[in-house]
Amino acid sequence: MTGLRYVYAVCRPFRSALQAQLKGVAGEPPKQLTHHGLVAVLSTVPERDFAEEPLRAHLEDLEWLTETARAHQSVIDALTAVTTPLPLRLATVFRDDSGVRIMMEAREEEFRRTLDRLEGRVEWGVKVYVDAEPAQTGPPAGTGTPASGRDYLRQRRSRVRAHEDRWQQAERFASGLHATLSARAEDSRLHAPQNSSLSGASGRNVLNAAYLVPRADSESFVEIVDRTKDEEAGIRVELTGPWAAYSFVGFAGEEEGL
């Protein structure tokens, strides 16, 4: 193969075939490179886009980055359906097959240890949002105009307490849900709450967690989440997955490429 090697993931050999029409980064179908009983899933990509200098420039291009990330994730999702992949970071590129083999050999023990830990398991993501209350600059509904400055301050303190009580209720709900789900998962990770201005999601994110769950237990795990979705007014629970175990691959993002 000519061109550079874009590596998506490392896994053990698998029997099920990937979709024939599956395209990865740069529109190229993924291939397998086997070394010491491990498989690197990769595509051939052009140097004009993925050599060090052009790649650095492309990573500043949001449109290119989004398209590449989508193609990368499509391959990971396809692998997750048939095996347990260890996803590598976006844009992990090597000069040739030899470079990929050197990487695999250097990290062989770590790859095998992580595969043993994650075999037959997937990641589920759970987020909890509390709906934002509409801004209220006047007195609470039904109270009329404050009769005095003292009444105004009393009404304002009442609004502040109601606002604080709302967040505390949501945080208690999120904490209880996390404890319940963690008890049903083999491992869990708490991520920083997402900024709504960046994620585009409505409401305030009070829980952003990932759970490592055996495939065989995934149905019951999903049922637990589904039962919580209407428990509290003004609180929204979102479930995503099943994903490759991104949050539980300790070496993700540490690979060396070109």
Task: Tell me about this structure.
With 258 residues, this protein is an alpha+beta fold. The protein has eight helices and nine strands. The protein has helices spanning 47-50, 52-58, 62-80, 97-106, 108-118, 149-184, 196-199, 218-228; strands at 4-11, 31-35, 38-45, 86-87, 93-94, 121-130, 187-190, 204-214, 235-243. Strands 1, 2, 3, 4 and 5 form a five-stranded antiparallel β-sheet that branches. A four-stranded antiparallel β-sheet has the order 7-8-6-9. A hairpin with a 2-residue loop joins strand 2 and strand 3 (38-45). The radius of gyration is 24 Å and the shape is elongated. Mean pLDDT is 87; it is low at 134-142.
How are the SSEs ordered, and which strands pair?
Elements: E1 4-11, E2 31-35, E3 38-45, H1 47-50, H2 52-58, H3 62-80, E4 86-87, E5 93-94, H4 97-106, H5 108-118, E6 121-130, H6 149-184, E7 187-190, H7 196-199, E8 204-214, H8 218-228, E9 235-243
